[in-house]
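Hi everyone,

Forwarding the result from last night's run.
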Amino acid sequence: MSASTERVVVVGHGIAGLTSADALREAGFDGDLIIIGDEPAYSRPALSKALLADAADQASTAHELPPSDHGAEEILGTRASGLDQARKVVVLTNGKEVAYDKVVIATGSRARRLGDGPGEMTLRSLADAQALRERVTTAPSIVVVGGGPLGMEITSGALARGCRVSVVSQGPPLAAQLGAHLSRVFTIAARERGANVVETAGASIVGRGRVMCADGTEVSADLVLTAVGDVPNTEWLAGSGVLPAGRGPVHVDERCLVTPDVAAVGDLAAVPVPGGHRRTPLWNSAIEQAKVAATALLHGQDAPVLEPRPYFWTEAFGLSLKAVGPMPASGRPEYVDGGPGGPALMRWRHADGPATVVALDYRIPIPRMRRLAAAAG
């Protein structure tokens, strides 16, 4: 560890920032540690998987994270507005400056919106989830725009609360994430639960409660909620020299470093892939990146590089799916155990590397799934 590293500042209070702080301590850093964030930490996956579906009168606690023992000073309720690499300071929105020796950028992302009108809801933050939970207590009709994992989980949760739900998907729901075979499984389950699934080439909001599909079909409801991706929170880094094109995600190296003193992890980080850089805005990816970055900030080139271990998890329409390996899965699966229409352990083999293993309503430890994937590679 460099003797000059006396203070590390982590900008971001989500899972990427908290994991970075914990990993720094685990890697031996015993200096000043400061975390800057504008909201309390919580489990974002629980917002769509548990908080909305929970019908209890009092709010679910599924989103709460266990207390951390990193011992950091926390500057909460404020945001960073700038990064000055020359002076090594993070500038806050209140004008104060926080000096650093090393810094972790972990400010995440926000929901992408289709429009700028007041009638569009999104689900990204705890406040979003609580607002949506309150709205669905009256069982309104809802149009969910977006057939990805978030959109389908919201659709499932809203149906469970007694809402009438149409989900407008660009192509078959979940096909881009899971592949055609698993997409069909979830689409059938959604329709059996009462969802109106509308496939289209694109959609736009044309008025309060009104969504227009690319073919001219209009879908209307009491409430429109969009789940059409996310936007990296990197505007505050403009002029810092961190952004490759002055905007967009932060490009990092194989150790999640921008420079030896600056790391970027989580939803805003684009990691090296064949042919360029790519973001992987998933919970487990944020954790993996944060652990690698923390070690690299302290030990430089002696630290291990990021070796992504793809993992995906979703629950919707009474189905629970966990997957390891490259996704989406193409073609028909090999059934390792079980079969169509019931709990199943499936595998897709690939010519160049580990297989994809999917557990659908099937209890199996993730390490065993990884071993099955490696053995079939």
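The longest strand covers residues 164-170.

Cheers,
N.
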